[in-house]
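My current task is to audit a protein record that another person submitted. I have pasted the whole thing underneath without changing anything:
***
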Amino acid sequence: MKPNYVPEIDGVRVTRLKSETDARGAFVKFHPLRDLESPLDSVALSINPNLGTIRGMHFQVEPFAEEKLVTCIQGSIFDVIVDLRPNSRTFGKWTSIELSAANALQAYLPKGIAHGFQTLMPNSIVHYSLSSTYAPEYSYSIDPFGDLGIEWPIEVHLVSERDAGGISLSSAGQKYADSLKN
């Protein structure tokens, strides 16, 4: 597994969950929300019973572009992010990180980032905090097997028709750029 690593994707931050543990169990705090550029609108869970499931590469365009805080709270995922922002020095680049319950890492993704993952363990659960509501008419998927060149780390066992039939990276970049003009 040799992904197209870049030193960083502008604006993406990876932090570790803060956990307080005692005899009762644990209390886990997510990234300080006051540090985010926009207030969060919703929280979602992605429950993935099967090993090798791919979800993504998803993004929304303006006026519903999303900031995301992504955390794997059970299991493990190969998390992939792609920069679609036309004026970013990392435009068109992608990188990956393993997010897992064991490593307690979480990723903050600014607007203009496409996101997806592959489950590395069965019964992986991904927690999302989102700055915008889901708007199907502003939502797109990039083909996870197309021109991004992602080398998924394990055999793919499940992917939705929508995701497998997603648009190209160049079309995604154009859709995001066009949404900024309106």
